[in-house]
Specification:
The protein has one domain (2-15, 39-341). The chain has helices at residues 2-24, 28-37, 40-67, 74-89, 97-107, 112-146, 152-175, 177-193, 200-223, 229-252, 260-274, 285-294, 301-329, 331-341. Helix 3 crosses helix 4 and helix 10 packs across helix 11. The radius of gyration is 21 Å and the shape is globular. With 342 residues, it is mainly alpha-helical.
Length: 342
């Protein structure tokens, strides 16, 4: 509970600083006029993209359960998605969602092992889809952004390698459990030696249990590769919907001659760079990377500032506020899992 409050405080402080900077860097009256002139129909399209993002994630979860002959009502799947959205948004590396989601699925009558397996499948599908989509946009639009964004090559290389490393690590655990366990054990010993962690024995024991659980789930996936196909399609649509949000935000503020695919690529690069920053919501870095990429499409500072603010409200703060509703709807779930996370 305390950790979550600290994370929320960090988000608020950085948001105030970033928002304040965006406002004072241009005439506040210009920002106000830009907001007043915004076309509501395009903002509604941007909101619709976020709803599609949530719906297709919910469909992926429901489909994976159906593939392992288990039933989950769509409304429970959607609630699970929104609970995950909330806790992912307020925790570093989006790490808080899955434990809470697993608990919620157990409350829905799903065995813990089965819930963990399904969430693992969904996470791997998401990471693979994001990595493949990132590779596609790099191959198609690398030269375009390289010529317009300072340091683009280094930024994208680091972002892509982090995503690729996560995928390799997940599959490495499944195919090489002994090597993975040896590597992680040595890492724990090293971290204990430099005083970053305290009780290394307890952590190693917990690691052993988690790796065995992971390996059992991974074996199930290797024996049933068909469960990846439809969720992969849904996840790709989900990501495209998310990357489309800035396109409609730009249109709402009167931007013209925008290439839809180029904007999607820019959105993908922003996510690639900021998604693994160890700050809840990558607050500060997300706005900075968005500014870096979208300044090549929007030249007026007031329009760019309000574009960043609206994009951030829709893609980060909206999931938090919407997620709160679903967490509070099951208040018992929210209290218990928050304590576990702390």
């Amino acid at each position: 509970m305390i950790k979550n409050k600290i994370n929320i405080l960090i988000i608020i402080v950085i948001t105030v600083l970033v928002g304040g900077y965006l406002i004072i860097m241009d005439d506040p009256k210009s920002l106000l006029n830009a907001i007043k002139a915004a076309k509501v129909e395009f903002l509604l399209c941007a909101v619709g993209c976020m709803i599609l993002y949530w719906l297709f994630e919910s469909l992926s979860l429901k489909v994976i359960f159906s593939k392992i002959n288990s039933k989950l009502r769509f409304r429970d799947s959607f609630r699970n998605t929104m609970i995950g959205q909330f806790f992912n948004s307020i925790t570093p590396f989006q790490s808080g969602g899955q434990p809470v989601q697993a608990y919620h699925l157990v409350k829905c009558g799903i065995p813990l092992g089965e819930a963990s397996c399904v969430l693992l499948v969904k996470f791997i599908v998401y990471q693979v889809a994001l990595t493949v989509l990132s590779l596609v946009v790099i191959l198609i639009k690398f030269n375009f952004f390289m010529s317009k964004v300072l340091g683009f090559g280094y930024l994208v290389l680091v972002g892509f390698l982090v995503h690729f490393a996560v995928v390799v690590f997940l599959f490495g655990i499944g195919f090489f459990p002994t090597v993975t366990k040896r590597f992680l054990t040595k890492l724990i010993h090293f971290l204990a030696k430099i005083k970053i962690i305290k009780d290394k024995i307890k952590i190693i024991e917990r690691l052993d249990v988690e790796l065995k659980h992971f390996y059992r789930n991974f074996l199930f996936m290797k024996q049933n590769p068909h469960i990846f196909i439809l969720p992969a399609v849904f996840t790709t649509i989900q990501l495209i919907a998310f990357f489309s949000v800035p396109y409609f935000v730009c249109l709402s503020l009167g931007a013209v001659s925008l290439n839809y695919f180029t904007i999607i690529c820019a959105g993908a690069f922003v996510s690639m760079i900021s998604s693994f920053v160890p700050i809840p919501g990558a607050t500060g870095v997300a706005e900075g990377s968005f500014y870096l990429f979208f300044s090549i499409f929007i030249f007026a500072k007031s329009e760019l500032s309000i574009t960043i603010i609206l994009w951030r409200v829709l893609t980060f703060y909206l999931p938090i506020f919407a997620g709160v509703f679903f967490v509070k709807k099951g208040k018992k779930i929210g209290t218990t899992t928050t304590e576990e996370l702390s």
